Amino acid sequence: MARADFAIDGTFYIDRMLVRTSIGIKGGRITAIKKNVEAYERESFDNSIIIPGAIDLHVHFREPGLMHKEDITSGTTSALFGGVTTVVDMPNTVPPTTTPERLSKKLELYSSKSFVDYGVFASLMPGGRVAKLAEQASGFKLFMGSSTGELMCSDPVQQSKLVEAAAKTSRPVVVHAEDEALRNRISEYNLRDHYRSRPPECEIEAVRRLVRFAESPSRPRIHVAHVSTREAAEMKHGENLTLEVTPHHLLLDSEMPLKAYGKVNPPLRRRDDRIALMKLVTADKMDTFGSDHAPHTREEKEDEFDYAPAGLPGVETMLPLLLQLVGTSELKLSTLVRMISEKPAGILGARKGRIAVGYDADIVVVNMRKIRAVDASVLHSRCGWSPFEGHLAVFPEKVYLRGRKVVDGQALIGKPQGMAVHGVHDG
Ligand code: DOR
Ligand code: ZN
After folding, report:
1. Which among 44, 217, 218, 360 would be 20 to 30 A from 62, CA to CA?
2. Most ligand 1 atoms within 8 A of CB, residue of 93, 188, 264 to mutate
């Protein structure tokens, strides 16, 4: 066997177990897993565990158009320091990613600026050129209800047509599932009001409809974003209907004194709801973790509650917060890796998300004893705040992207090297 370019010796998460071994890396891929891999260079880790990089299918990096909140450089840097080596960007930028031309432009921006591997979701809207968009997009985003930006299709008949059109392309459709007709138009002064303005029924009704869409003979691939209610999470899913959960819906609730910094769609629910969601996660009933990283400035969040925009940052804290739950035995490492790496890679069809021969060497080294509190002043998002301030977390010590070291402690190494992710089914 040819010598590897580079080898790493350590304790790896491989096939649901932690094993002491070595991996060889060549051309960015893992080429060998065995004791004593021969390599030109090597690095060894003794007090750490090594897991696959996280894949976040849900980020809003705000470029083009809203770069005072975030841009591709700051957003992808933030991702890397949180152990996220692949992101897929949402279409509610300015202008929104609704046409093949805008999609190409966004991909071009990513190709020169991104520090992580990436994909882009196209907007799924009436009049959109779905087949053409599918040639370059990792998938589609459908907003069933309104949120930040103007992308929304609230009519059930249209929604069904759009999902059918996407099914023909075999790309996944990520859905913001809140039924517009069931929203309550009330003045909002706090998080409890925000909860009432978008009550659980909003989400439950939308997800019920998606369950029906998923049963169509065309078998559309539907991924429900940020499920926030127990009832929606318990609905029939599997194969072509998958469910995402966010760290904020598991760790934060509307009874906490977060003011508009906790305003997000769908809303933070009550304590009981988030505990019920956590139970479903630990029982391995949910599919993926996504951050729904949606930064807004402090100034915007300090506005009157009703006017403050919904959305909160989270790409850098997602894996660290969840690793801390592994450290306290509230979450199994196997559940974490399945939901944050393996399953998202499966949805993209990418050879990523596992430490296995033939897979990209996207790797995160963590020392589970190095626990620190989240401190937004040292995070890398442009927005400069975190709703998780003070929460305990385990941040990565080192991060490798396709075998190249890109994070070493507090240092970012090298230039942007992110590449577009291609699925195994792509031409
Ligand atoms: O709270 C939210 N903020 N929900 C979304 O669906 C969009 C996001 C944003 O882009 O700010
Ligand atoms: Zn979102």
Report:
1. 360
2. 264
Question: Is 85 touching ligand 1 by the criterion CB < 6 Å?
Answer: no
C-alpha to C-alpha distance for 201 and 256, rounded to whole angstroms? 22
Domains of the chain: 4-50+358-412 (2.30.40.10), 53-348 (3.20.20.140)
Tokens, residue 245: 């959960």
Task: Based on the residue annotation, tell me whether 15 is a catalytic residue of this protein.
Answer: no
> How far, in Å, from the CA of 151 to the mean position of ligand 1?
11
- The answer to whether 251 and 264 are in contact (CB under 8 A) is no
Judged by DSSP in three states, 422 sits in coil
50 DSSP β-pair partners: 12, 365
Is pTM beyond 0.90 here? yes
pLDDT tens-place string over residues 392-407: 999 999 999 999 999 9
CA of 13 to the centre of ligand 1 (A): 33
Give the Å distance between the CA of 21 and the centre of ligand 2.
38
For residue 427, what pLDDT is reported? Answer: 46
Regarding the beta carbon of 91 and ligand 1, being less than 6 Å apart is answered: no
* pLDDT band for position 1 (cuts 50, 70, 90): low
